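Lab notebook, bench 4. Still working through the backlog of constructs that have no structural model yet. Next entry is a single chain of 96 residues. Request: give me the structure tokens for it.
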Amino acid sequence: MSSKYDRGFIVETAIVWVVVGISVVAMVMYAGITGVVFSFVVLVVGVTSWSRIIRSKEESHSIGQASDVSKSIEELSEQMQLLNERIKELEKELQE
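Model written out:
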């Protein structure tokens, strides 16, 4: 098992792909030819989405989790400041 993927992530991956596989088989069984086409589209979308998730997870490991947390806290703080300013503006408008 690779050290960059924890056990929880691997379990989540297995669950997601088992569900996708079951739904693809069900589409083919119940819808026939149109189910094959639709299941192919579902698989293509699933693979591209999952590869994007894997790439973003690899990038976050290379950057480091501490910097991600501090960056998230800074962004959250900025959003809270903007919301506080907006609330003050709305209070002033309501008082007038």
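Notes after review: Residues 65-96 form one domain. Helices lie at 7-31, 33-63, 65-95. Flag for follow-up if needed.
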